[in-house]
Amino acid sequence: MSDETPKPKRRTSVHRPSSDASRFHMSKEAVDRSVGDYFRMSDLECLKHLARARWGSHKVVTCPHCSSSAEHYWSNTERRWKCKGCGKRFSVTSNTVFANRRIPMQTLLAAIHVWVCGSAGQPALELRRILGMKGYNTAFTLISKGREALVRGYNTGLISGVVEMDGAHISGRGASQRRGKPLNYRNLDDEAAQADALLTTSARQKKRREAKAAAIAAGGVVHPEHGNVFPAMRRITMNLRKRGGKKGKGTLTTRVGICMAETPQAAELLARQFVAIPESILATDTGTAFSKLGKEFQVHLQVNHSETLVGPDGQHVNNSESFSARMDRAEKGIYLNIEPKYLNDYAVEVAFREDHNRLAPGEASDRFIHYALGVGLSRHFRGYTHGKHRDYEVLLTGNQYAAPSGPAKGRSPISMANGRPPR
Ligand SMILES: [Zn+2]
User: Fold this and answer.
1) DSSP reduced 3-state for 411
2) Which residue, 33, 58, 365, 415, is most buried by CB atoms nearer than 10 A?
3) How far is the CA of 236 from the centre of ligand 1 (A)?
4) What distance in angstroms lies between residue 97's CA and the mean position of ligand 1's atoms?
5) Dihedral sign computed on CA atoms, order 162, 163, 165, 170
């Protein structure tokens, strides 16, 4: 009996230590406001709420025409101010992405709240269903304008300190490869591999050359260094994340950029745009894109991912990896096929979500309003549903032409086959 090994204790569940994030999300402080609170507010209360989020006060406000801050004349009947400086009138949404809105104030605030609440993203269709918006276009343009505002209001300014940098393949991989192929296409690939093994070396090389030429002819992107061809829709989302001072508290600020390939040029352009390089420390993996750039920083911490995830001196890019994972989930689980043309907008949205996920939703939506109402009118989504589409794609290496997509003037941005109501 005694030489028998003791029976292992039966465990009913796997022990998972609770993280700092889960402690916050389960706490009382994680819920400060609900959608219902906005619908209980009067129009005037909503207006004051927006004014406080935009200018920090609903009394001392800033004229969007001449930028003078004062207690401007308030007209209770018009619900607008008249500027003491230039005499022009303005409302709380004048010269913002939400100018000329037609939805009620309460719905606008509730939409922002619901949109900010999503941890990986919030689809327009779902927003429309939750808030009972009349058309899909209303929800779609509202959140697209919000996203555009974050690009100009949030993804801007220098960061310093310990900065992590990494890139990840994001757009157009799974969908474009799988579309039009049978579900068991993997088996077909295996058959192709078996056939490939029977070829002579020269025949195999010829076959690969032809496949490469075909991929380039179909609009594929050739990597400038190793010469591999990527599908036409594939992009790299590069991110920069400033580490917070406290261990386990995540990062403070994120900056993003899109490029065709993770090259030294793209990494340098991103760093020059967003990092105070001489006073910062760079943390990356051992990717070749970062080795030259790292020399300009005070210290370059590199982690060799084939050996370990965290080195002895804090060599890791786990916060950057966390962003890439969240971006991947946003694409695969929420937004599905993000057009490369708008990938930058979506990446900035994910950055905003990642940076504000330790704030209660009310506070996070107030921050969103502050960023979104400070960047002027929408340039890309006014008139979108009437066919006015942006015709370029934002890239670190310089914007490139992208044909306006979607149906022509006056149609829904989604296909009419999907959007048309049954007769
Ligand atoms: Zn003025």
Assistant:
1) coil
2) 365
3) 43
4) 19
5) positive
Read off the amino acid at residue 70: A
What's the token pair of residue 52? 């406080």
pTM attached to this predicted model: 0.83
50-63 pLDDT per residue, tens: 999 999 999 999 99
Spell out which residues have Cβ within 5 A of ligand 1, the ion: 63, 65-66, 83, 85-86
**DSSP secondary-structure letter at 300?**
E
For residue 411, pLDDT beyond 80: no
Task: Give the Å distance between the CA of 152 and the centre of ligand 1.
Answer: 23
Q: 383: CA distance to ligand 1 center in Å? A: 27
Q: Tens digit of pLDDT for each residue in 113-158? A: 999 998 889 999 999 999 999 889 899 999 999 999 999 999 999 9
Q: Grade residue 200 by pLDDT with cuts at 50, 70 and 90.
A: confident
Mind listing the domains of the chain with CATH numbers? 30-153 (no CATH), 162-171+235-353 (3.30.420.10), 186-230 (no CATH)
Distance from Cα 372 to the centre of ligand 1, integer Å: 20
Rounded to the nearest angstrom, the distance between the alpha carbon of 80 and the centre of ligand 1 is 13
